[in-house]
Amino acid sequence: MPDTIIYPTINLYLYDLKEGLGEDDNKITQNSQEFCKKLSGNLDEKTLTNKYQHTDADIIQLLDTQYHQFPPPLDGWYYPLQIGDTYALQVNYSGKLNPNRKYNDDVQDIDDKPFLHLKQEIIEKIAHQTGSIGQTWVLSAKLTTSKTDSDIEKIAQECYSQILSNYNWRLDLIGKGTLLGGTLFQLWYRPENHGLNGKEFWDKFRQESYHVLIWLFPENQTPEEMRDNLQILYYDFLRLFQYRHKIIWAYYQSRYHKLLLKKEYIDIQPAIRSIRELTETGKSNRVNLSQLQKTLNDHLINLSDYALALNYLENQGRTIEVNLKNYEDRIHDMIRKYPGSDLEVIDKFSSEIYGKKYHRQVVSDCQNFQPGLTLLENMNSTIQGIIDLEQTKSDRALDDTIAIAGIGLSLSGLTATAISVQQPPPSSYHNFSFLTSPVFVLSFLPSAPFLIILLYRLFLSRKFRR
């Protein structure tokens, strides 16, 4: 005999990034446009951008009313929010109301694939879009008869198969627990990498991954009690899943920036060799200052790119840390509010297997790449030092030239003076008799101390340069 359920419902929790680190107004506007597409014209993008884009409030209700109801006979609604730097959208859908426009609590055969139909209609409602950060599907229904644990798991597996075709229950199942009298299963399907990395992989991941909770209520709860229990958890789930998806998003963004850093680190290896060669060359030969300045400019670009990528990596680590703490706090608050529930299945995400592992990995990556930044900074300091040294050499050489020229000019002046007063004038350029003339001797004596000091300075500069 086929299994039956009452009031199957899907709540989709979807998240878009409103504003990422370093994004300009054009990108922020594009983010809001992408989010508005998911509401089938029920949220005006221009109004959203002008009214809420630069608002720093933590939580903003984006509609004039809390929920936007689907037109009858559809039983469902939208609930869009802005939570900090994130857009959040909850879509609730339970199919059609009964002929009296009331909740349809008729018994339904699970083999008729009610969750498949609900999912397809929700996807139509959100224009076949996925969240830029992620989404969670919460499937719920009331059982019609008393079931064993194995029977309940079998029904949950059938529900899961209606959401995802290429699933593996054993691999995807994180665990099960209880919440407000219902049995709760948590599953997570993650697509394979297939050689993709960075942003390409994230685009594939966010579109194909499925985070699913299946919440089956016992036969002794009335449909109204089940709906009340679902409503109690709306906000807790909305915030909890936001933290979860921010952690996962930040982790995979960190993989992209790690890839950039690895590439930058490889690219600077030839630069390290060139600096060593320049250093060796500078010991014995003059260095081309123009070439050295070009090398410095090139490496300043490398330093800037590396420092920027490392800063993004560190920022993702902080994002994981903050949202992991928020996730843990929310779970502890839920445990306090819902005594008698077993929420370990949800708490697992913040354990060593997922959230904490992600955080440790990013922290470790930052520590591993930090020496690369120090190396680049030292390289640029070395190049600048060589440039300063070569410039100093050039300045000294110029001073020496001026000193020699000064000596020559002084002697030339004395010589010209002596020759001009010598009578009779020398008859040949080889006649140096003017050197013994009283005029030359008397003219030379006042200048002699200065010329001696100049020659001594020239001697010292030559000596220390060697």
Q: Whole-number average pLDDT?
A: 82
From the alpha-carbon coordinates, what is the Rg to the nearest angstrom?
39 Å
Number of domains in the coordinates? Answer: 3
- Tally the helices: 12
What percent of residues are in strands? Answer: 15-25%
Q: How many runs of DSSP E, i.e. beta strands?
A: 10
Largest sheet: 10 strands, mixed
Distance between the termini: 101 Å
Estimated helix fraction: 55-70%
Low-confidence stretches: none
Question: What structural class do helix, strand and pairing data support?
Answer: alpha+beta
Q: What is the succession of H and E elements?
A: EHHEEEEEHEHHEEHEHHHHHH
Coarse morphology = elongated
For this entry, give a set of tags.
466 residues, alpha+beta, 10 strands, 58% helix, 16% strand, elongated, membrane, transmembrane helix, transmembrane
Structural features, described:
- The chain has 12 helices and 10 strands.
- It is of the alpha+beta class and 466 residues long.
- The termini are far apart.
- The mean pLDDT is 82.
- Keywords: Membrane, Transmembrane, Transmembrane helix.
- The chain crosses the membrane at residues 401-419, 439-460.
